[in-house]
């Protein structure tokens, strides 16, 4: 395997962006493609998938052949980071190409307003809005988690088609409720389908692909799975298969492995639909997770410290890969640091769309194409999360990374910690006392970021 990187609708109304023929994305000029050459985009986001809960990293107790095949057909991204260790903020960064606090989503958006810590800025331009402006049909199948009410429902934020779940999680993968409320929708209409949520989303994604197969317009499909987020509820036959294969596995781990393997099969069916309808060769497929794995569910984050909800590496670094036949060489991998917010400009550059709106992310398309790219070198990268309850008190936790240095504030009421990831990738040796000047430098950068994010409202205005 070659290593590239270890060296070097709202329709026209109200979209506050400027489209220029010679515009740039992350310092790189976009090349306009004729409509027939524009790729379809399939963006697959797993929910709480641990960094090593895929078999392509050699994890012995799990089998994910479809994800393995997807990643090996293109480039594996070994240092891909979620913008936040929890759902909504990462999704806000993904959809906007900006730091989540710059678009009003520093924390989770929830059903209960007393425990909701974000409100997506209605003026923020989202990826589906830009793609729709340039002739793409845009679809969301699965979890949204960026707004339960107008003006922030999916069909109001650029998606032509929405078939999925509005809220942060389902409390049962067969019953599909959250605090007694049914958030399952087909566009604006409430639906109440029967079946396991993973199977439903897989089927709806395949249906969307079948519907788009006869269209001359390219499509953008955001397949946003609910699994493997807890409650960990695999179909019984999948659980029994894992137990038979892994006789020494714990009950809890067996359930999670079966849950992920069931998800993997569904992803395989979606990719197979692309191939069946002759769409695969002109489709860029991006796969990743919204945050690290959930340790109480016995997720495997590899050698990384901690997991979901944490600013340590296990909460932020996630599995990722990109496939695009004829453009990205197969069996390649990159150790460049990339973030969720980088997907937005990457997709636009691949589609030949120039964009001059606000961006925090940088297109990593050059890296995907095997070109040298100084991606995020010398640039501070910020990770934030706001949360309530007694543990967080409505305050924030955060981290800043500058090259190999990382300053962490993992509790609002705890001390800061400093790590050199080049010599201590597992974050075992806090060196803040040995390098106080570096800590002050990083803290000053972090304070400026928090001030900028603090200028953006993150609570829904009073009705």
Automatic annotation (TrEMBL):
In this chain the Sulfatase N-terminal domain maps to: 39-353
UniProt cross-references to InterPro entries, sorted A to Z: Alkaline_phosphatase_core_sf (IPR017850), Sulfatase (IPR050738), Sulfatase_N (IPR000917)
Any one Pfam family match given in the protein's UniProt record, by short name: Sulfatase
Keywords for this entry? Membrane, Transmembrane, Transmembrane helix
Annotated GO MF terms? arylsulfatase activity
Q: Which SUPFAM superfamilies match?
A: Alkaline phosphatase-like
Task: Kindly list the residue ranges recorded as spanning the membrane.
Answer: 12-31
**Family designation:** Belongs to the sulfatase family.
- Protein's UniProt name: Arylsulfatase A
């Amino acid at each position: 395997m070659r290593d590239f990187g270890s060296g070097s609708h709202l329709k026209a109304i109200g979209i506050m962006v400027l489209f220029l023929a010679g515009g740039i994305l992350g310092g790189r000029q976009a090349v306009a493609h004729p409509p027939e050459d524009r790729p379809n985009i399939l963006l697959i986001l797993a929910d709480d998938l641990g960094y090593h809960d895929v078999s392509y990293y050699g994890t012995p107790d799990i089998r994910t052949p479809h994800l393995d095949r997807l990643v090996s057909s293109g480039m594996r991204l070994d240092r891909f980071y979620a913008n936040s260790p929890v759902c909504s903020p990462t999704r806000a960064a993904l959809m906007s190409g900006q730091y989540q606090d710059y678009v009003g989503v520093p924390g989770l958006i929830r059903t209960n307003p007393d425990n909701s810590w974000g409100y997506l800025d209605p003026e923020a331009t989202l990826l589906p809005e830009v793609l729709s402006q340039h002739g793409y049909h845009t679809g969301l199948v699965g979890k949204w988690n960026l707004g339960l009410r107008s003006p922030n429902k999916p069909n109001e934020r650029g998606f032509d088609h929405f078939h999925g779940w509005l809220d942060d999680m389902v409390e049962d993968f067969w019953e599909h409720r959250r605090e007694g409320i049914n958030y399952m929708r087909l566009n604006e209409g409430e639906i109440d389908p029967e079946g396991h949520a993973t199977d439903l989303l897989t089927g709806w994604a395949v249906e969307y692909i079948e519907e788009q197969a006869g269209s001359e317009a390219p499509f953008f499909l955001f397949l946003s799975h609910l699994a493997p987020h807890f409650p960990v509820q695999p179909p019984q036959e999948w659980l029994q298969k894992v137990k038979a294969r892994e006789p020494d596995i714990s009950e809890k781990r067996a359930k999670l492995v079966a849950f992920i393997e069931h998800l993997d099969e569904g992803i395989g069916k979606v990719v197979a639909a692309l191939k069946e309808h002759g769409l695969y060769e002109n489709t860029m497929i991006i796969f990743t997770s919204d945050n690290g794995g959930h340790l109480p569910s016995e997720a495997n984050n590899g050698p990384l410290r901690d997991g979901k909800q944490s600013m340590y590496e296990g909460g932020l670094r996630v599995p990722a890969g990109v496939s695009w036949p004829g453009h990205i060489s197969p069996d390649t991998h990159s150790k460049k640091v990339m973030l969720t917010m980088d997907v937005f400009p990457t997709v636009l550059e691949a589609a030949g769309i120039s964009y001059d709106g606000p961006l925090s992310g940088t297109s990593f398309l050059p890296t995907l194409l095997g070109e040298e790219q100084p991606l995020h070198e010398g640039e501070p990268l910020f990770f934030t999360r706001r949360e309530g309850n007694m543990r967080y008190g409505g305050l924030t936790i955060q981290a800043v990374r500058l090259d190999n240095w990382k300053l962490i504030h993992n509790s609002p009421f705890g001390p800061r910690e400093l790590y050199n990831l080049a010599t201590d990738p597992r974050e075992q040796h806090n060196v803040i006392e040995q390098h106080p000047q570096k800590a002050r430098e990083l803290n000053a950068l972090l304070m400026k970021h928090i001030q900028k994010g603090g200028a953006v409202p993150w609570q829904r205005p009073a009705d």
